[in-house]
Amino acid sequence: MTERHCSAPVAFPALVEYWLGELNEAAEARLDEHLLGCGACSERLAGIVALADGIRAAFAHGKVRAFVTEAFVQRLAERGVRLREYRVPRNGSINCSVAPEDEQLIARLEAPLAGVKRLDAIAYPPGAPEEVFHDIPFDAASGAVVLASRIEHVRMLPSHHYRVRLVGVDDRGEHVIGDYTFNHTGAAPAG
Q1: C-alpha angle with apex 108: 150 to 145, nearest 5 degrees?
Q2: Whole-number Å distance between alpha carbons of 162 and 88
């Protein structure tokens, strides 16, 4: 099976689990053997690794805004990433800023999430169209949603107000979970 075609291609989720080290020992051994003899699947795995490396690099340079898990934030902290963290109460606001030494900007949006099936977020950046994030990750037991902002973008902004709305979605439709306002003090002069 050294050609670029595979008669039994490995499923994408299995390749991701392999790369993340999430397979049991027997499954990992089978996949190791397959990948050693299959150029097509090895090439697909290399593509996953390259994609992950690109995402990691973009995130490390503060170029990605995403809703993430608490475990993801813990991994950043364990790797020594300098975090600027804020906790925003439901239907509340917070005064915030970033410092030159900050590498990631993390906001925890407090929310009653028990019973929520799907959660969307709507961001209202100043002077720009709203941005909708569908089906964002959340842990109902934590009582908060975690937002990692594009710190390099935020660092360049003048003082402004930024709003985020969390919206629960279920069989009955959409309902507002909470509104959050960031009163950002910027280093850049207002222009």
Answers
A1: 95
A2: 12
Work out the pLDDT band at 64, boundaries 50, 70, 90. Answer: confident
More confident residue, 34 or 75: 34
CATH topology of domain 62-184: Immunoglobulin-like (2.60.40)
Residue 68: which H helix or E strand, with range?
A: strand 66-68
The model's pTM is 0.74
Query: Which pLDDT tens digit goes with each residue over 136-188?
Result: 999 999 999 999 988 888 888 899 999 999 999 998 999 999 999 999 998 75
Q: Enumerate the CATH 2.60.40 domain ranges in the chain, comma separated.
A: 62-184
Distance from C-alpha of 107 to C-alpha of 53, rounded to nearest angstrom = 24
Q: What is the CA radius of gyration of the chain?
A: 20
Name the region of 127 (left: φ>0; alpha: ψ -120 to 50; beta: rest): left
First to last CA, the chain: 61
Judge whether 47 and 40 are in contact, CB under 8 Å: no
Among 68-72, 77-81, 136-140, the range with the most confident prediction by mean pLDDT is 136-140
**CA 161, CA 124: separation in Å to the nearest integer?**
9
173 sits in which H/E element: strand 173-184
